[in-house]
Amino acid sequence: MPALDSGRTDAELLAAHVTGDPDAFGELVARHRDRMWAVALRTLRDPEEAADAVQDAFISAFRAADRFRAESAVTTWLHRIVVNACLDRIRRRQVRPTVPLPEEGPGEPAVQGDQYAHRELAMDIEQAMGTLPGDQRAAIVLVDVEGYSVADAAVALGVAEGTIKSRCARGRGKLAILLGHLRNPDGDGRVRTSDGEPSPPASRAVPTARGSASGGIPPQSTGGSDKR
Fold first, then answer.
1. d(Cα 75, Cα 22) in Å, to the nearest integer?
2. What residue ranges do the domains of the chain occupy?
3. Tally of CA atoms within 13 A in the half-sphere of 61 that contains its CB
4. Dihedral over alpha carbons 127, 129, 130, 133 (to 10 degrees)
5. Cα–Cα distance between 66 and 148 in angstroms, integer?
6. DSSP letters along 22-66, please?
7. How far apart are CA 222 and CA 228, in angstroms?
8. How far apart are CA 194 and CA 107, in angstroms?
9. What CATH number has the domain spanning 7-93?
């Protein structure tokens, strides 16, 4: 098993992998697997599909490492491969229902008190995200959940910055409608202005309930020397 941190940069690890270092890619996977898993899970909303997408993505990255041109960060390149793997799966399952995330993982203690409300909030957000088209969901996951800039998200998804802005705006508008009841529990689900009149959906960051709905265990990497 490779050391978890040899002190080399991502670019150095990828270059070492290309030149035959048997441990370099495994270290790169160990360094970024959790974040790639979170992106895949939030995009696909299905732990098994997310695991498969991450595995497919790392295999693709393992094989395509020699084509990396350092025009972006290695993490951006990996995100692009993972998101593309997720979008491929979304396109293939268009006619299949989405499987909701489990409310509790194996061995997880019972949720008590205010944690119930937090869990319900996370499930509401996940369900709302699941109604978005895959391209809008991917853009919102990168920008609003993972904190990528519009420019970096555009590179990761291989589209123009204006396209990312448009996808985020459309997705946020839909989420504002679907999640309006979270700000007005006794209302009709529409966001209200200070004078009580309904207001149009705002383009605002999506509430993420970070960490509460990303359950599951990140998948193990596969493919020769990239195994941990």
1. 20
2. 7-93, 113-208
3. 36
4. 160
5. 25
6. TTHHHHHHHHHHHHHHHHHHHHH--HHHHHHHHHHHHHHHHHHGG
7. 8
8. 45
9. 1.10.1740.10
The CA distance from 48 to 77, in Å, is 23
Residue in this structure with the two tokens 């999640």, named with its chain if needed? 179
Contact residues for 53 (Cβ-Cβ < 8 A; gap 6+): 40, 43, 44, 82, 85, 86, 89
Could you tell me the fold of the domain covering 113-208? Arc Repressor Mutant, subunit A (1.10.10)
Tell me which residue of 75, 37, 71, 43 sits closest to 167, measured CA to CA: 43
Each residue's pLDDT, cut to its tens digit, for the chain (228 residues) gives: 444 677 899 999 999 999 999 999 999 999 999 999 999 988 888 899 999 999 999 999 999 999 998 888 999 999 989 998 998 888 776 544 444 444 444 444 444 445 555 566 667 777 788 888 888 988 998 888 888 889 988 988 888 999 999 999 999 898 888 877 666 544 444 434 334 444 444 444 444 444 433 444 344 444 444 443
Residue 201 CA from chain centroid, whole number: 23
Cα–Cα distance for residue pair 175/194, rounded to 1 Å: 20
